[in-house]
Structures are given as C-alpha cells and as structure tokens.
Amino acid sequence: MKLEDFGLSAERGFLSSYEIDTIELPQGFDEMLDAAASLSGLITSGRVRHFLRQVGHPDMAYFLASASDEQVRTAMVHYSFLVQAYVWGEAEAPTTLPANLAIPICAIGDHLGLPPLLPYSGYVLDNWHRLDKSGGISLDNIAMYQNFLGGQDENWFVLVHVAIEAEAGRALQLATELVEAAAQHDAAKVELLLADMNRVWDAVNAHFDRMPERCDPYIYYQRVRPYIHGWKNNPALPEGLIYEGVAKYAGKPQAFRGQTGSQSSIVPTMDGLFQVVHESDPLREFLDELHAYRPPRHRRFIEAVRDASTLRDFAKTQSKSVKNAFNACVEQVARFRSRHLEYAASYINKQASSGAGNDTDVGTGGTPFMKYLKKHRDENRAQTI
C-alpha cells in the first residue's frame, strides 16, 4: 500500500498536490471567475442572485474532455462557492438553482465523483496556497483562495483545517507502515512507529487547539457557518433544491448534505487503522453517508487501510510497552474528538441567534450532533487494549 497510488503524500496528506493560485482556467470561465473574485461584494449587495443569474457558462463537455484534473478541481472550488452563495446569500432560500450554475456544478461533480454542492475538498483540500513558495505549509505561510465574505475568521477557520491536513500526511504514511509491520509481526517496528504516530498527533492537536486565536465563535456562527449548509434535512429547503436544466434530475428537487469537517478523511483512516468501531446511531449513519462526499481516491485509501489493518489484534498479543504505545495513539484521536466537541458547543450551541438554515441543533451536514459527538468520543476512548 503506497500513498502515491491514492494521490496522497506524506508532505501534504489529503491536500491537493498543486496549489490553486497556479492553476489557470480557459477563457470561457472568465465571467464565472470574475463573479467568484467579487463574491463578497455580491453577497453584501443583498442581490447576489441577481448578479449570479447573469454569469454565462462555458461548454462543459468540451472543457471536461480536455481539462487537467487540477483545472477541473479548481473549477469545482469556484462553482461550489457560487452555488452556496446563490442558495444562502439572501434571506429566503430559493427552490431552484438556475441552469447557468446547475449545469456546470453537476457536470463537474459527476466528473470528480462528488455531489453538486460545496464539498470539504472544495472548501479546504483544494482551496489553499502558500504565500512564500519556498516555505512550508504552516499557518504563517498559507492563504485561503476562494472566500464567501472573507476576513480573518473565515480564513482562519479553513486554514487551521489545511494545517491539520498537512500535518496528518505523516500519519497517513505511518498508517501504511503500521499495517505492514503488524502483518509481518514486527513488534519492535510497530512500537517505534506508534511512538512516531503519537508525536504526529501531538502536532495535529496543537494546530486544532489554535482555532480560537483568530476565529471568533460569534463571527463564525453569523458570517461563516451560514454559507456551508446543504439542503438535506434542512427546514429552509424541506424538499431540497431543483437543479434547473440538469436532465438526470428531471426537474425534481435534490437533497445533499452540507460541507462539514466530518468529510475529512483523517479520523476515518485512523479508525480503520486502530480498528475503532462505533455502534449504530444517527451520527454513525450520517458519517457512513458522508463517505460518498469524499474524493474517490480518498475513499479507497480509507477502505484499504481498514480492510488491511490487523494492528489492534496484533498489539493485544504484545508487551505492555506496545499496548501502551497503541493506547496512546487511540487516546490522541479521542483528544481530537474532544476538542471537536468543545468547539461544537462554543461555536454553535452557545450562539443564541439563528437564521435561515443556521439551526443550533443541526450540523452543517444536516444531523443532530452534540450528544452523538460525545458518544463517539467516549466509544473511541473506551477502545484501548
């Protein structure tokens, strides 16, 4: 099992291997790119739909037949932001997405194996770049490329995720090595790799701890969160959204989950590696459904690790030091889940105001989350050996 077989690397993990500021789209995308570049102003006008309805769209069949993967993914970033802004950029949600946005987002989504709205890959994984190309992927050297309203809080929210994804690249490499070492019954190597994994997770959790530094809970709730909701299990769009002009939907409303950090592939990979399982509940069902919202190669990597790992069973038969090293890593993932639970409480539940599609009891993905986040954290923590 090699990371490169899944389009991954130890240096960047699930992040794009390219940087979005270096990718150019063909001339036919100029109107779309102009709208994407001025999206904050269009939203602030209060008439974002008026302006977005006027954006022309290129011949998608021709584009997809000739474009590079980097270009298609870049188009997905921009179109998915425009789609979300169209739906959530005014007080009342529309029932229909116009054809000039619906046709491109559906064509691109089909090509990439992703749903036709903003995915985590478009929000985070493909939507960043280094400020100094000679420097590393660190919070003092990365920027968010496409925004909704922009500003420090929106940027920081995304960039902390980017930093976590980059840091976790080493954890993905270690996961492949641990699968192999366990299969070969090499206890000494397993123990060394687990110690290294523990150090990586110290760094991952340190990045996550920095979220409050520049992302205020009130600003997040009022100015960041509203734009990343989907249209499944959302009272603002109870029937879903009609994608105008998209033949396969035949004019019928479609319901898709919103963007959420739960679409990240890091924790599912670790659950697969450490053979952590969760009892059936609404969050488990939701997370299982979200698997289809990940890029196909990321799905395959999670599945490959999960199917191949014998690490837990092997560690159970080994010395106390191997068990302790294993348990330390399981606890690190539980710590990550604990911090997520704390942020859900402070950034969402404690925010009293609510707006269209901004329900405090339902996550942006469209599921009740608080009690189940705690349950999954506790299940994770309980599965030491």
Shape: globular
Q: Characterize the quaternary organization of these chains.
A: single chain
Q: Helix amount, in percent?
A: 55-70%
Number of helices: 18
State mean pLDDT (0 to 100 scale).
Answer: 93
By secondary-structure content and strand pairing, the structural class works out as mainly alpha
Give the spatial strand order of the biggest sheet. 1-4
Radius of gyration: 21 Å
CA-to-CA gap between the ends?
Answer: 26 Å
How would a textbook summarize the main sheet? 2 strands, parallel
How are helices and strands ordered from N to C?
HHHHHEHHEEHHHHHEHHHHHH
Q: How large is the share of residues in beta strands?
A: under 5%
Q: How many strands in all?
A: 4
Ranges where pLDDT stays below 50 over 5 or more residues in a row are 352-358
Highlighted features:
385 residues, mainly alpha, two-stranded parallel sheet, two-stranded antiparallel sheet, 4 strands, globular
Can you characterise this structure?
The protein is mainly α. The protein is 55% helix and 3% strand. It is built from 18 helices and four strands. The chain has helices at residues 30-37, 39-44, 48-52, 60-66, 69-88, 99-112, 120-125, 152-167, 169-183, 187-209, 211-214, 217-224, 266-274, 282-290, 296-308, 311-316, 320-349, 370-382; strands at residues 96-97, 128-130, 142-144, 242-243. The protein has a two-stranded parallel ribbon with strand order 1-4. The chain has a two-stranded antiparallel sheet with strand order 2-3. Helix 9 runs parallel beside helix 13 and helix 13 packs parallel to helix 15 (296-308). The longest helix has 30 residues, at 320-349. The radius of gyration is 21 Å and the shape is globular. It starts with 29 loop residues before the first helix and ends with a helix. The model is unreliable at 352-358 (pLDDT under 50).
